[in-house]
């Protein structure tokens, strides 16, 4: 399981290699057709991973890592019942990466944003476990952030 999850996590964005760099790294606002092209990286990644002969459960992580539990993600508007454990884990780590590294939020700001979206986007249990790992030395912070869900 760890090996499969690791491979899925490492390959989840592989479809981006098929997106033109001038669009993928564009700093200005994207046009509608450019957004569609970037969002297509999930399908392209799925196809690439399948062409490598890797298992469906690894390929589906690439396809589904931008889906949300409430069905408001992309590309297929899947809900919690259709999302594998691997997909849910990679989605949390991917969101953390985007919000902290690419959006330049502090780790604590990132966690705050993710918790505010938790019930719509992520498994609360998995998010709690992830944050416990990230803030291993700061258990009080984790307890404080999740206090609203505990009560």
Q: Could you characterize the architecture of this molecule?
A:
With 151 residues, the protein is an all-alpha fold. It folds into 2 domains: 64 residues, no CATH class; 83 residues, no CATH class. α4 runs antiparallel to α5. The protein is globular. The chain starts with a helix and ends with a helix.
Helical proportion? 55-70%
Class by helix and strand content?
A: mainly alpha
* Uncertain runs: none
Q: In one word, what is the shape? A: globular
User: What is the overall pLDDT average?
Assistant: 91
The major pleated sheet works out as: none
Map the helices and strands.
Elements: H1 2-11, H2 21-24, H3 32-39, H4 41-51, H5 56-64, H6 85-102, H7 107-121, H8 124-134, H9 139-150
Helix pairs in contact: 1-5, 4-5, 5-6, 6-7
Task: List its salient traits.
mainly alpha, 2 domains, 151 residues, 65% helix, 9 helices
Characterize this entry briefly.
The protein has 151 residues and is an all-alpha fold. The protein has helices at 2-11, 21-24, 32-39, 41-51, 56-64, 85-102, 107-121, 124-134, 139-150. The protein is 65% helix and 0% strand.
